[in-house]
Amino acid sequence: MTEVSSHVHDSSRVHDVAIVGFGPIGQMLALLLGRAGHDVIALERWPNAYDLPRAVHFDHEIGRIFQSAGVAEEVRTVTDPVPDHYEWRNAAGEPLVRIDWSGNGPSGWPTANFFSQPRLEAVLAEAAEKQPTVTVRRGCQVVDVQADADGVRLSVSGADGPGAVRARYVIGADGANSFVRSAMDTSVTDLGFFYDWLIVDTVPHEEETWSPMNWQLCDPERPTTIVSGGPGRRRWEFLRLAHESVDELNTEETAWRLLEPWERTPENTTLERHVVYTFQARWVDTWREGRLLLAGDAAHQMPPFAGQGMCSGMRDAANLAWKLDLVLTGRVHEDLLDTYTSERSEHVQHAIGMSMALGRVICVLDADEAAARDERMIAAGADPERALPPTPPPVLGDGVLQRAADGTRAADVGHLTPQFRLTHRGHTALLDDLTGGGFTVLTDGDAPLKALDETDRTFLSDIGAHLVPLYETAAPEDGYTDAPGGYLPHMREHGHVAAVIRPDFYLFGAAADDAGLHGLVGQLRALLRWPAADRDTQAPGKLIAAGEQ
Asked: If we measure between CA atoms, which residue out of 333, 501, 518 comes closest to residue 417?
């Protein structure tokens, strides 16, 4: 439901969640929380959706998030999967780095996908607004935030004057200049990475084949990015040189002059937008303060060279949504929300570090320095693992993750898990489509499940977990037949009979034997602090066994 006028809203109503900002991250949060049945209100300061491009890329993991939000097919219709590699070339055209983006990634989606943000936002907004418990108020600006132990009061200003909105929790998904963040007492870590780039979005008049589809020209005379802007669109990005001012660079005349060597003219191309962005590398140190939380650009910004800006915001949404769901329904203690910062901050620092490493390759303006760079990277054979400096691994920080007996973090936990196509009762589909998502317990056959006691089963039922016993071939009626080279070979290689996957697709932990599964579930229960105080768990819900949704 969409509202425009502030006076039509019931200011006495207390929503579960108020989301400030209705861009793609706010839309995803509204959609995920709405699908879980929560009362959500999204407040967007602008009366109409912004109709020009911004973000253009998402990876396979984000495709899986779209899948979990029920918009997989709609998103596929507005994206271009990458058929080849992402290449970085020097001024002579020699490859410096070549990253394989072809085919499907581990999450069962194409490794890399390009889109036009207005079209993607239209998909997400429509899906969110269709949720019966989601209200969207456009043209509604938040002007004050007052939080207490019971909730948050937002003072708002709209076309019909001032008003107020109350909610149990508020998420600031309101961009790099977040108003919600300004209401929090949190510091920012800034790595001092600043470069100005002219972004030029175009629509070629005729369909063309671009090979590679996406690449970087690492020419010290003018570093340039050439990528897809989604179906039917192309984007160029030009680094501002030292003798140029932002005003000189950000003109239509300059845009056409810089496009001319690429044979783009007003006769064969429509110039959709030109704007100068200052690329930065920074993150907020605390993403939760009581009932206030941050997501997306409100919590972090990074250079676009790895295409992970919006992706990181979508990961925020996936992480935060399942935790808020458990807290809002009273199943677990609200302290679970503290793990949002610890888990996501460490992971986003990987994305920022990788983006900066790539940026340092292309943002070289000294000819001698560029020559030395070229020699080093060509000698590495354009292999990204050898040509680029090491960056932190893409793993979650401390939080809801298995611990070893000595208290240290268990191996492999906190990493993204793959999604394979399984067969259950004659139907073959991706794992999440078969289970419906949520916590998933994978086991080697059904024997490990016999180690679960009544408390384990009550707990797993309460958090909506799915039991997925796996078989190599010919699974029994309640089992799943694994894909060739799927979960079972990996589990057996590592000596595991069971694994628990979180709703955001990251590995909580694994068990080496049947008794270990009992211990693993007990550890998850303890970390979630289940059951929450004063909650009756004597009447358990239904544990979701194989194939039941």
From this structure: 501
CA distance 87 to 100: 9
CA proximity to 82, closest of 225, 203, 207, 213? 213
| Spatial CB neighbours of 321, under 8 Å, sequence gap ≥ 6 | 29, 32, 33, 36, 503
Among 345, 339, 342, which Cα is nearest to 524's? 339
Contact 231, 118 (CB under 8 A): no
Q: What is the pLDDT of residues 79-130, one digit of tens each?
A: 999 999 999 999 999 999 999 999 999 999 999 999 999 999 999 999 999 9
Structure tokens at 10: 């019931």
Structure token pair of residue 379: 């000698």
Q: Give the angle subtended at the CA of 115 by the CAs of 322 and 257, to the nearest 5°.
A: 140
For the chain, helix, strand, coil in percent to 5 are 30, 30, 40
CB 94 within 8 A of CB 215: no
Q: Give dist(CA 494, CA 430) in Å, integer.
A: 23
pTM (two decimals) = 0.94
**Element housing 525 (H / E):** helix 514-527
H/E run at residue 179: helix 179-182
Cα 504 from Cα 241, distance rounded (Å): 41
Sign of the dihedral defined by the CA atoms of residues 262, 240, 57, 25, in that order: negative
Count of H-run helices and E-run strands, the chain:
15, 29
Residue with tokens 């270990």, as numbered in its chain: 516
CA-to-CA distance for 45 and 41, rounded, in angstroms? 13
